[in-house]
Amino acid sequence: MGKNVKIKRGMDITLEGQPENTIHSVQAPATFALKPKDFKGLIPKLNVKQGDEVKAGDCLFTDKGDSSICFTSPVSGEVAEIVRGDRRAIMEVKILADSEVSYKPFATSGYAGKSRDEVKALLLEAGFWPFIVQRPFGVIADTDISPKAIHVSGFDSAPLAADLSISLKGEEASLKVGFEVLQMLTDGKVHLNLHADKNADIYSQVTGVEVNTFSGPHPSGLVGLQINKVDPINKGDVVWTLRPQHVAFIGKFFATGNVNLEQTIVAAGSEVNTPAYYKTRVGANIATILDGNLKQENVRVISGNVLTGDRIATDGYLGFSDNQLCIIPEGDQYEMLGWLFPSYPRPTLSPSLPISKFLKKKFKVNTNPHGEPRAYVVTGQYEKVMPMDIMPQQLVKAVMAKDLELMENLGIYEVIEEDMALCEFVCTSKIDVQKVLGEGLQLMAEES
Amino acid sequence: MKFLRDQVDKLKPTFSEGGKLSFLHSTFDAFETFLFVPNHTTKNGSHIRDGIDLKRTMFIVVIAMLPALLFGMWNVGHQQSLALTGTDGDLFNNFWVGLLQTLPIIIVSYAVGLGIEMGFAQFRGHPVNEGFLVTGMLIPLCMPPDVPLWMVGLATAFAVVIGKEVFGGTGMNLLNPALTARMFLYIGYPSSMSGDTVWAALPDGVATVDGYSGATALGNLASATSAGTGWSSDLLAGGSIMPAFWGNIQGSIGETSVVAILIGAVILIAAGVGSWKIMASTFIGGLFMGWIFNISGASGAWMDIPAMYHLIIGGFAFGAVFMATDPVSAAQTETGKWVYGFFIGVITVLIRVFNPGYPEGIMMAILLMNVFAPLIDYYVVQSNIKTRLKRVQV
Is B271–A351 a contact, with Cβ atoms under 8 angstroms apart? Predict the structure, then answer.
């Protein structure tokens, strides 16, 4: 039997622009792109050049460190452009999509009888491997390893997150196959972590997994917290994590042999006219969703959620792993004496802003940090939003001091950036906790 | 607002890099961000941030000190009137006299402290930290009303430079800066900081009225203990604990009124700014140690005073609420805060009872525990580490 865990420490940030429970179909975007920056530490090695014709499932680039890891095209079409940034680093590989997607066929039939290596080879070649995130460090999974366990968080507790029972409706069979495949990748358990009260019918056909239930505020839906409560990562342990939508991709792949990355994402936030669910694909250009759907120009478009996502342009591309777009106003306005007399309600953990904390239910939030960066003064604040058995402020300080041994002792293997995003949100001193932690993780990864 | 913003924007180039007054950049920045929350936006990471910042946090502490300050102003006038005439003046007059006496101390404290802070910020190319808004108010509140202004300035300079900036500025200091200032004067100029003559601010050369005594309860208790006489409520001002609770007694400017301090404590706790754990554990520690002496069987004024009274007389409440809770110099772990506060209470009472040379123990106790706070935190962190290591072996 799995565990039942109640989370007390944490914080739900309720924002304006909650998605309606409707799924919209918009015109398929003309271009798609894969962004190597979506993967921590990845150095890509191109497999195609501009003008090449590709099918959905054809390899666009591989990981220079492990060339068996392919990043494949989500659609068929022509390689339109390879966008390069500083020092010729590859930023985007753009595909001009055919009107009808044609798929590269893979021999996946009879997957249940295949060996682990054969299944792995298929996942690698078809480009599903990058969906598998490895802890510690939150990097693409190591192909030579069998992890201690695989964890999938069955729900998303982040602000404005998609309700997976809507976005994955109809994917029940794919999820079933997907979880069967995951069980072939590990000698340990596959954990499916569900919310204690939320509808989990989409997982009704899933068998063979350990089901744990969670309740309480965000970050109850973050897989890092769930691992910490169910079966924590110790030094030397390797754990893999996936998101349910990616498990469904894998299931669909093994059922059909096609790399079909169609997904339902949520576009939400106070600046969207119709916050709702939209059908699209991995790597899609989001302009077809946002055209005519924005209330104003001066907005921040975030691929992912407001706490951890990446800033993209209004005609940018959805991040590889993201199933969420958040659109909030920019906060580039001066606010006279705003620290003393806030001129509008804003989300807060602090009772020193009583109107915001106790009265306001939903916030129209912007990107102003509401203060300047300072040295650490306040203590005991991170602990209120950190339900893991980890001392967050001490860990951040250990990273700042580049004290590798202390970082290890304080449990850096158990966290990745998203696990401490709420600490960054509540920080009085406006310290970029996720950035600092990311540097620490990189340092540890280089040393190990 | 638009007009003001335009004026600031007009001035800004002068203070920015390449401008004539660019050496005052940090100072300008401090004033600008005081007036306007900047139009910066988040980069990546968490795109949204909490509404709280350090300015607001520090400002709330200043607000929490206002009841103690206002009461202290009245009390300075009240004590002067008692010393000069033997009778109480009217409310307004008391307050006015107190204001005239107190305001220069506050101005000196802020001017000297902020001046040095801005200089250091400029030198280091840092923004000016808001921490001194609180320190600059705490220093006057823990001074005797009759303290010479040059001493306030000197002590403030010492506290900011040696107590804080040499450690790297706000957030890095080991000791509470305000108590560092008080300690500096207490050791350097003891006759101006304690005794029977410093608690009423009197014009030079004016004699007190017959029968007036400038002794505080702490002084009385210390001398009674030395003399071997026992505890009696006559040792307290007015022969009862109530004046010490309300605060119309002699003492440092902001420390006398437990009521005013408790209002401050409520503000700090309600706003989530001050640690209730530290306040509670300090009071528990003092009560516990007082009670131990009560039941110890040893006799003496300090041994037999009801344990509860320890929390009310002297600077105990002020120290527990405003000084011990300084988050930078206190223990920073949640468990550590309990230990830290408890020992402040215990040590305060120990010093009072055993060391008649220092009638008040809270200042020493807090500074001592400031020094030990990192050690307490170290053990709390080690226990977290041990739990994690144990997990591997199981």
Answer: yes
